[in-house]
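Hey team,

Filing this mostly as a record. A colleague (T.K.) asked me to run one chain through the structure pipeline before their review meeting, and I want the input and output archived in the tracker in case anyone asks later how it was produced. No errors, nothing strange. Just documentation.

Input sequence:
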Amino acid sequence: MRYEGKAKKMYATDDEQRLIVEYKDDATAFNAAKRGTIAGKGVVNNAVSGALFELLAEAGVPTHYLGRLSEREQLVQAVTIIPLEVIVRNRAAGSFAKRYGVEEGRDLDPIVIEWCYKNDALGDPPLNDATAVALEIATPDDLETLFELASSINDTLLPYFEERGVELVDFKVEFGRTADGKIVLADEISPDTCRLWDLATGEKLDKDRFRRDLGRVEDAYREIFRRVVEGRPPRPLSGQEAG
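Output structure:
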């Protein structure tokens, strides 16, 4: 094993430019202050991420994804992660709503794209363009590229989720550099990294159910799997049996 993080393990292959990522059921929140397990989460996140990476690649967004190997594993291109979390917000929610004292669910026009310094020890603090450049985290050209890619991802995912009865409230993505210096989408896109609300009921179908002790966490992840991977019609979480 080459690396183990909070949600995934990474393994080397015979090709140094390719890695195997294994998705775990471990769950963390609040910078790992809260820990637990969500049964089947690794299977869901692997499948959902794979489907969304393929969708984005078709839309012209470069990604590190090469293919799904098993229920929990996928093959990816090796990259050097840029230590910036890129957060795209279509509505006010979570830390954004708390920080600015606005009602959760408030529409944001224009959408908000934020940077956070990817550093667990510091609590992933938000920063602006000047700070990112001054700390040599990214160049001005890098930030322009990240902004354009994040906008393209949002433009692609918003209608895709809407067709499946889901509102994409916000999401966090990470990017990396390939061996030849190209910036590509990396990490994952899943209920772990997105806020996903049922369009009809407003029910939360993401990791907020774990963060906020809302219950039926496994049901929410399985519902996103049904809609995104299986392409099945939406059904309210309240109509499911508790997981």
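Quick notes for T.K.: The mean pLDDT is 95. The longest helix spans residues 140-163.
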